[in-house]
Amino acid sequence: MNNKFKLSATIFASIIALAACGTTGNESESSASEEQAEYTVGVVGDTERLVWEDVAERVADEGITLNVETFTDYVTPNTALVDGSLDLNAFQHLAYLAEFVASNNADLQPVGYTYISPMGAYSESLESIDDLVDGGTVVIPNDVTNAGRALLLLELAGVLEVDDAAGITPSVEDITANPKNIEITEVDAAQVPRSLADADLVVANTNYAVDAGLVPEEDSIFLDTDDLGSLGAQYKNAVVVKSEDAENEDIKTIVEAYQSDETAAKIDEVTSGADQPAWTDNDDIAADFEEVVNQSQPAE
User: Fold this and answer.
1) In angstroms, what CA-CA distances link 85 with 180, 194, 241, 254, 273?
2) pTM here?
């Protein structure tokens, strides 16, 4: 073999070797990219979106891509979870979840607490809830659990009384005393704050109140979380998944990232201090949920 041919062969071998190294590197990068697990969480309202976008940034370092999808109602995030459009959601308290599971025979379960959010009474004309006049008008949410909570708030405030046998989800039919003859109108929860100009009083969920520009701690005339101990676990919000995903390690990582000091600070920031972290070191959310399910069944 002459020197010229030897040199050409050497150069060709070197090119092949470099190409092989380049291919191996690209394959490694591709494999690393493929190892980044991807999940989608469904939330309701801008405040929860901001919190979960913050969580998503942090779990990215754990090899998890977390997409945040925002909804405007309380029904779709659960139906999307059931049909597989979502991998988890985080918008509802245990009482709402219990009612949805029972009504839809859905195999969903909570895997970690997020926050507890007050339900508040708001008014453009009243300084105190005691100022409600005879025949006054009140707007509350129309879904089973939030309507029930609104009625229990009105009972706690001394406006009316409901039948204890109705449990934690009383309806207007369960009102046993209405001394001021208030007129109650039920509308979609998202529309409640928008009814302020048309009613003497509205009873709204915090996320929709905040989205409407209200500050619960400043603008409400009554909050049902003034005594957190009286609420119990049923109104703690939770991360929810299909039961088959309850032991998914990535889901556990996401929950752990949520239940952090960073998230607590973000919740305080975006809700102006209204929402409070609901997780503790000794949570048994499965047992709590079972108890709430039992409470949700009206007494015979």
Assistant:
1) 46, 30, 12, 18, 32
2) 0.74
